[in-house]
Recover the amino acids of this structure.
């Protein structure tokens, strides 16, 4: 009974705290998205190629969506002729240091860890994008007909929730449907305000993220109650360099949702997991999971995909080492 109490207490504490953080950040993101259109940002990226990696990394911070929503944006950038360096920085930054991720890291680990995590991942995005522009692989991006051939079917993701929700619902009148449709055609439907669009998007984003938060809180609660501290310390504890490398390598193929990972890792750290392996696992798992690699392949050519995965893996290892021995 004591273990169930511990599990329930951990679930309520973690789930409640993260729900508040996600709600606030979702609203802020909705207003930011409404007043800073992504289309304008994409066009600016084409006009300032000299600062492309920096702008791409910053743009990624403003895109708190999953990879399925990031890839269509990347396709738009490729179609407009944005350089691979800018695209690469965006692809690294978007899943690793967007506002949702930073808010969750802050809610769980505090300001110092969040600031260090942001510095590591943001610099990695800039450096990774800059390095790719200095190699023969800088043209390894699909454009024009290549994108049309590999085009993914449109879906109503969280990033598109506002537009999808805004579509008028078709209804059938039971009496004189022709007259009713003519009358409706002459009536101008009121357009939603920016505030309404922002709040609608915030609600859609909140609903999309919360199931993973609650699942992560549940796993966190069960782990806090039933997972042996000795087992955690044996395999990923201490200051073993190999544990950091292993965590980074394991993280890359995993589909590690940040909403689920952070609550769980908080418990594992409390039970003896090193901070280095924990951060290596977060960076590797959220930066380049197998589903994301598959989606990115729709935009990047094989050599660029290899470069993308290599940058994420190197960032995970370096970030883990810094968190273990420096920070």
């Amino acid at each position: 009974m004591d273990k169930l109490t511990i599990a329930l207490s951990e679930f309520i504490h973690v789930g409640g705290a993260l729900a508040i953080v996600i709600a606030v950040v979702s609203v802020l993101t909705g207003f930011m998205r409404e007043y800073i259109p992504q289309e304008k940002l994409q066009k600016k990226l084409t006009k300032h190629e000299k600062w492309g990696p920096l702008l791409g990394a910053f743009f990624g911070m403003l895109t708190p969506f999953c990879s399925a929503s990031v890839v269509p944006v990347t396709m738009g950038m490729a179609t407009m002729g944005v350089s691979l360096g800018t695209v690469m920085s965006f692809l690294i930054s978007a899943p690793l240091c967007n506002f949702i991720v930073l808010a969750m890291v802050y809610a769980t680990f505090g300001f110092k860890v969040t600031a260090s995590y942001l510095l590591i991942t943001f610099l990695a995005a800039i450096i990774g994008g800059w390095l790719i522009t200095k190699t023969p692989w800088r043209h390894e991006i699909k454009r024009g007909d290549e994108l049309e051939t590999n085009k993914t079917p449109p879906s109503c993701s969280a990033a598109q929730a506002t537009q999808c929700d805004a579509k008028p619902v078709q209804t059938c009148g039971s009496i004189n449907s022709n007259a009713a449709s003519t009358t409706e055609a002459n009536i101008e439907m009121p357009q939603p305000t920016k505030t309404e669009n922002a709040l609608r998007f915030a609600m859609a984003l909140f609903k999309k993220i919360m199931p993973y938060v609650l699942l992560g809180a549940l796993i966190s609660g069960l782990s806090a109650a039933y997972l042996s501290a000795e087992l955690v310390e044996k395999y990923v504890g201490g200051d073993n360099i190999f544990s950091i490398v292993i965590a980074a390598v394991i993280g890359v193929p995993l589909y590690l949702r940040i909403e689920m990972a952070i609550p769980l890792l908080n418990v594992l750290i409390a039970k003896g997991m090193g901070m280095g392996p924990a951060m290596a696992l977060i960076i590797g798992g959220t930066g380049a999971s197998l589903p994301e690699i598959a989606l990115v392949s729709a935009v990047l050519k094989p050599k660029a995909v290899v470069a993308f995965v290599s940058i994420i893996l190197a960032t995970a290892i370096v970030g883990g080492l810094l968190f273990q021995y420096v920070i």
Q: What stands out?
A: The chain has 17 helices and no strands. The chain has a mean pLDDT of 76.
